[in-house]
Amino acid sequence: MKTEYEVKYYTHNTYEDPVKEAFFSFQITPCQDDTQRVLSVEFQHTLPAQEFHHQNPFGFDVTSLYTAQPFREFRFEMTALVEKTRPFLPTGTPLTVAEEQRALCAYDFFIDHHLYLGTGHYTHIEDGLRRRLLFREEKQPVYDYLVQLNRFIHQMLEFDPEPTHVHTTVSEVIQLGRGVCQDYTHLFIGIARLNKIPCRYASGYLNQGLNLTGTAVMHAWAEAFVPGLGWQGFDPTNNLLADLNFIKAAHGADYGDCSPLRGVLKTTGGHKTAYGVTIHPTPMVGAAQQ
Amino acid sequence: MDGAMRQAMTSGVFGNYQTPPQFLDEVFCQAGKVNPEYEALYSQFLKYSKDDYRQLNEHAKTSFFNQGITFSVYTDKAKGVERIFPFDLFPRIIQADEWAQLEKGIIQRCVALNLFIQDIYTHKHILRDKVVPADLIFSSKNYLKAMLDIKPVAGIYNHISGTDLIKHSDGKYYVLEDNIRCPSGISYVLTNRVAMKRALLETFRKFKVSTVQEYPQELLATMQSVAPQGVDAPNCVVLTPGVYNSAYFEHAYLALTMGVSLVEGRDLYVEKNFVYMKTINGPKKVDVVYRRIDDAFLDPMAFNPDSVLGVPGLMGAYREGNVSLVNAPGTGFADDKAVYTYVPDIIKYYLGEEPILNNVQTYRCEKDDDFKYVLENMQNLVVKPVDESGGYGILIGSKATKEQLAEFKQLITQNRRKYIAQPIMNLSMHATYIEGEDRFEPRHVDLRTFTLLGKDRQFVLKGGLSRVALKKGSLIVNSSQGGGSKDTWVIRDDSAV
User: Fold this and answer.
1) Chain B residue at shortest CA distance from A260
2) What structural domains and CATH numbers belong to chain A?
3) Which of A51, A64, A67, A119 to mutate to test the interface with B (most CBs of B within 10 A)?
4) Most buried one in A18, A152, B47, B116, CB count within 10 A?
5) 8 A C-beta contact, residue B249 and residue B85
6) What DSSP state is assigned to residue A30?
7) Which of A50, A55, A111 shows the shortest C-beta gap to B128?
8) What pLDDT does A289 receive?
9) Which residues have CB under 8 Å from B105's CB, separation 6+?
10) At what angle do helices B186-205 and B50-67 cross, to 10 degrees?
11) What is the DSSP secondary-structure string of A211-250?
12) What is the 3-state secondary structure (H, E, C) of chain B?
């Protein structure tokens, strides 16, 4: 089954004092992979400059803008049409637990996935906090465990945008017991890696249904590598598996590799930022019957 | 020996020279007996009375102040105080055949390290073949994921290497460190030679000393050779963190002698994945950047977002192949002192050759056996952090107090990956003029060499920086730790031409 989405990302920034020079980098464009195809993508913005693109170390598009013309306002909008195919959601695992274990412990496997096995600023969990966490039982298949972990984290944390920020670490999140999708995802990643399961941070867009009102923001979830199945998406914030409604922009070791917007500005005063996203399924001719 | 000479030996600047019994003195083979290669030079210096020599020395010092060759020390209480790097007029001599061997060994080492860096950022064969442990590389803070799968021009990462050598009491050279994060010191080599010629031109002319002045042109040619594809007349620049950096003089000196622009991060910008320099005539495209800014500060978009020294978007332009960075970012995992222990294996792995230069025996605290040995024998070892440079954070076991030893044992236990230890090497000694004493005394020396790798070109400077530990008995030669330097004369082998 396929669905076509119109995905919009927009940001609006106003500055107290003129910005004399600016460099912005966006990592917001939906990516191409086995389950999604970008049919078109368009950028509109208010700077007297042309956007340009390069790849990041993980192969994802980075859209940048540079200007040395002073400005006090910056609007930016990305509109993409994406064709999404329903991802394969496994019901079981093709490998035995012993085979899975052998695959996870192979040295080449470690080398190939090292970026998603080590921990850093965001994902390191202090020793003293590990008792409270969920670990894989010896006889438990990896996929089963990850599904259980997804639910465990969903129940462990309460969604609350107040206490955390973009630099919050997993250890802080465990102590707070609350956070946003970024924190849920880092916690999932941190625990999966303690279990020696490669796990990465995915950022993108979640279709929450046509009935949704109000402003949405970009979403984050985790992707874990299951031997025999490959990368599988888990959304601990909603206790969901990454299905047809998840439109991915990028992945990386953690939030640091996927931050949607980075900027270096020469200005003195403060600024106001607003941003949001919209995701609309569009009717696909010929696809409706599938 | 005539009477005048006998008298000079006792009352002149070499009077009362105490040849160190337990160390190799490169000038004297025993008390009063000069090695043959120093005889001619020694007899020149014997002619100076203490007063004459003091004057000569002051003259040379003035030359450095006049040239503005100063540096500052970060731990100094009086921040920003400019000092000159003490220079010793009595040069170190290296014979042609000895040098030829060193040169071969240095090139071998630099080429192997370059292949190593390339392999790590692409296929990682050496890790898969278990020659170097993967953990050791992945846990290095200088291993950069931003470099993964980037293909620098001609596959060169370490365009500029500063290999540090010491001469041990067995008369052999050993590699002490590989410095491949834009090593400094070359400006001292060049200005030392100028000061030497100004002070002692006649003496200098009596020896067939290899020139060093071609270095800036060799560096420029190296940079040009790795210009992005399709660029015919590359615009090369030197990127400095600015006047407050301890090596700012060197950045300015190299830009000046190469005839290229010296720029700071704020002078550059990236647009459409190309790097431009702001000039009064408008933007000018930049093709090759010799960057003297640390990796973490190079591009706030890719690394430390708070960096104001770097150029936003530079790594994007680099990944797209529109600019070359000299040296490539992320080379630092390979000159890490823990990886150092594997360099002989790295040479064998990539080149199928035996290493020409020796490594110093090194204990990695990460390994249980080594860790135990280090704790038990610390008083006989030098303990170093693996990822620092400039001689900071080093403990010399034989000189340390009980408290210092205890403190270091704790530091190491807390972070075993961070420390290595080596036997206290008997760095050779060299006759060095000691101000205040007005005479020569033996002091420990090492040798920093300078190597350039470009597309189809390899160059080792015939000379180098002989760094002297001026403090009596000290083994630390770094300029930031009270070291001085000597001109290094590599004798030409004219018969080979």
Assistant:
1) B301
2) 2-85+259-282 (2.60.40.2250), 97-257 (3.10.620.30)
3) A64
4) B116
5) no
6) P
7) A111
8) 42
9) B173, B175, B355, B356, B357
10) 140
11) T--S-B--EEEEEEEETTTEEEEEETTTTEE--TTEEEEE
12) CCHHHHHHHHHCCCCCCCCCCCCCECCEEECCEECHHHHHHHHHHHCCCHHHHHHHHHHHHHHHHHHCCEECCCCCCCCCCCEECCEEEEEEEECHHHHHHHHHHHHHHHHHHHHHHHHHCCCCHHHHCCCCCHHHHHCCCCCCHHHCCCCCHHHCCCCEEEEEEEECCCCCEEEEEEECCCCCCHHHHHHHHHHHHHHHHHHHHCCCECCCCCHHHHHHHHHHHCCCCCCCCCCEEEECCCCCCCCHHHHHHHHHHHCCEEECHHHEEEECCEEEEEECCEEEEECEEEECCCHHHCCCCCCCCCCCCCCCCHHHHHHCCCCEEECCCCHHHCCCHHHHCCHHHHHHHHHCCCCCCEECCCEECCCHHHHHHHHHCHHHEEEEECCCCCCCCCEEHHHCCHHHHHHHHHHHHHCHHHEEEEECCCCCEEEEEECCCCEEEEEEEEEECCEEEECCEEEECCCCEEEEECCCCCCCCCHHHCEEEEEEEEECCHHHC
- Identify all chain A residues contacting B312, using CB atoms and an 8 Å cutoff: 23, 25, 66, 264
Facing A52 at nearest CB: one of B146, B273, B305? B273
Determine, for residues B138 and A118 on separate chains, whether the beta-carbon distance falls below 8 Å: yes
User: Which residues of chain B lie closer than 8 angstroms to A111, CB-CB?
Assistant: 124, 127-128, 134
**C-alpha distance from residue A65 to each of A44, A251, A258, B352 (Å):** 11, 22, 17, 48
* A54/B272 touch (CB, cutoff 8 Å), yes or no: no
- Strands A178-179 and A158-159 come out as parallel
> Which residue in the set A54, A107, A108 is minimally distant from B316, CB to CB?
A54
Domains of chain B in sequence order: 364-423 (3.30.1490.270)
Q: Which of A21, A25, A108 sits opposite B301 (nearest CB)?
A: A25
Shortest Cα distance, chain B CAs vs residue A22, angstroms: 9
> Is residue A62 within 8 Å of residue A54, measured between CB atoms?
yes
pLDDT tens for chain B, residues 1 to 497? 556 666 666 677 888 888 888 889 999 987 778 999 999 999 888 888 889 999 999 888 888 877 777 666 665 555 556 677 788 999 999 999 999 999 999 999 999 999 999 999 999 999 999 999 999 999 888 999 999 999 999 999 999 999 999 998 888 999 999 999 989 999 999 999 998 998 899 999 999 999 999 999 999 999 999 999 999 999 999 999 998 888 899 999 999 999 999 999 999 999 999 999 999 999 999 999 999 999 999 999 999 888 889 999 999 999 999 999 999 999 999 998 779 999 999 999 999 999 999 999 889 888 899 999 999 999 889 898 887 666 678 888 888 899 999 999 999 999 888 898 988 878 899 999 998 888 899 999 999 999 999 999 999 999 999 999 888 877 777 766 668 899 999 999 876 54
Query: Does the model's pTM come out above 0.90?
Result: yes
Q: Give me B247's structure tokens.
A: 């090596």
Q: What is the pLDDT of residue A213?
A: 47
Contacts of A68 in chain B (CB under 8 A): 269
